[in-house]
Amino acid sequence: MSIYSECNDFELVQSLKRGECEAFKEIFSRYHQKLLYYTISIVKSQSVGKDIVQETFLKVWEKRQQLNPDQSLSAYVHVIARNMAFNHLKRAGYDDDLREKILESIMEKRQWVSYEEELHAREHSKWVERAIVQLPPRRELIFRLSRENKMTHREIANKLGISKNTVKNQIVSAQKQIREFLKCHTDIALSFMLSAILFLL
Known about the structure:
Elements: H1 9-17, H2 21-43, H3 46-62, H4 73-92, H5 96-133, H6 137-147, H7 153-160, H8 164-200
Helix pairs in contact: 1-2, 2-3, 2-4, 2-8, 3-4, 5-8, 6-8, 7-8
């Protein structure tokens, strides 16, 4: 495992500004699949989406000295990819052949997009459930009573014989623990999901 895999985005940008190639590789690994999913959803073309993602990271490398470590790296790369995708669609408005290809792609991929969204939702739900079952038993029970049974803090407190403040604290802790679990695991899940989607194209 690379030492950069343990770095946060702030540290990665600082390393990138020093020209460290391994930091760039980690950024690519961290955001490549997310950007591919994002751009394909805009341009409706796998090949164009791949080209845009490659160009996005090329720009990141070329403009590495201008990066601000205090700004969101995720937002930065998504803005670049979005602008490139929109420019591609804009050019299509002046290019009859390109516009026709995009329209054909949209028609062909309409069923795929619907399936993609369904698969994404199903995959996300699966990882949320995995996160929930990792909670301590008492915390899991309180969280499920709140989210699945739609019980209020007062109702949960009365049912379990605890204070409303305890219920609130347990739910906040559960949310934090779930977020941390998803942060550590959903990048892997998304990677597998995208591989499955692209295999079907």
